[in-house]
Amino acid sequence: MTMDIKKIDEQVNEFKNYTNQYINSADEKTVNGYKDKQAHSLFVMDEALLVDAIFTEYNESFKKLLALESLFHDIGRFEQLKVTGSFRDNELRDYYKNMDDHGDLGAIVIKEHGLLENLIPDVRLYDEEVMKVIKLHSKVNDDLLNGIMRDYILAFKNYDLKELFLSSKSEKEKDILTKVNTSIIQDVDRLDIFRKIVKGIWVPMVTEDRIDPELFELFKQGKLPSMNEIKAAGKWNANVGHLVRMSFINQMSLVPVLMKIRNENLIEKVYNASGNDIVKPAYEYAKEELERAIESSEDGIVVNKRR
């Protein structure tokens, strides 16, 4: 009995074999949704491993766990689309009791559809950890970053994953591992979404629409309402849309991911698409906030968010 997680390339094969079943049986309305989620999941795994290379620097056993959790983080989305016909989490409650979102469904799917047994054939030692991270990745949890410290991350280098999970004296370390992996997955998940938003900005979008001063203040406080809430208040226009896009940086928790946003000039691309000076104050503030978040981090890992 090896107690080992399958190699990353074998995980990818398992993932594709499972998700291709949905793609191959899909109709015209849903096939692109399945394909998009499959590509997104592969991207999140690749990016999570890139973040690990400059952040956690896990040993091989920890790296394989992160790969598994990131690759299968959205596994519930496939069954969700099949059952509900959409990716709207609020519709899941019409089909499943006591289920808040696709993370809850994913934790059930990866267990009940036999995926964990295929990915970790010999033991059930890591099942709860994997299911917990899949559940948490879709939740907003202000406590998630508490306790993530460089000392613990460095300590993982000296652990064997099996020994960590077999020990009865390592509950704190296991809790930190859950938080670290969930935070990595959440941030690279949002990074993929942000990249797609920036790439998909409709051009031309040059307008003289003003940005409501109250919205701009909420933007600076990191408390900008959602697009639907802004529309309901009658304050939505194209330039407010750019404001919402730039506010994406406030959702990020980890410095390495913010550095990717900076290095890829994603904020600049939003501003350049706007083509006007009305958005310029928001752009300048977002650039300053991005630098502040990166430079003010005490450990170079966790963003020191303003309250």
Question: Mind explaining what this structure looks like?
Answer:
- The chain is mainly α and about 300 residues long.
- It folds into 2 domains: about 10-190, no CATH class; about 200-295, no CATH class.
- It has 16 helices and no strands.
- The protein has helices spanning about 10-25, 30-55, 60-70, 75-85, 100-110, 115-120, 125-135, 150-155, 160-165, 170-200, 215-220, 225-230, 240-245, 255-265, 265-275, 280-295.
- Helix 2 runs antiparallel to helix 3, helix 4 (about 75-85) packs across helix 5 (about 100-110) and helix 7 crosses helix 10 (about 170-200).
- The radius of gyration is 20 Å and the shape is globular.
Classify the beta-strand content into a percent band: under 5%
- Sum up the overall morphology in one term: globular
User: How many extended strands?
Assistant: 0
* Overall number of domains: 2
Radius of gyration: 20 Å
**SS field, number of helical segments:** 16
Main sheet: strands, sense, barrel: none
Percent of residues in helices: 55-70%
Helices and strands: which structural class?
mainly alpha
Unreliable runs: none
- Mean of all residue-level pLDDT scores: 89
- In angstroms, what separates the terminal alpha carbons? 49 Å
Note the run of SSEs as H and E: HHHHHHHHHHHHHHHH
Could you list some keywords that capture this structure?
307 residues, mainly alpha
What is the strand and helix layout of this fold?
Blueprint: H1 8-24, H2 31-54, H3 60-71, H4 76-84, H5 102-112, H6 115-119, H7 127-136, H8 150-156, H9 161-166, H10 171-199, H11 213-220, H12 227-232, H13 238-246, H14 255-263, H15 266-274, H16 280-295
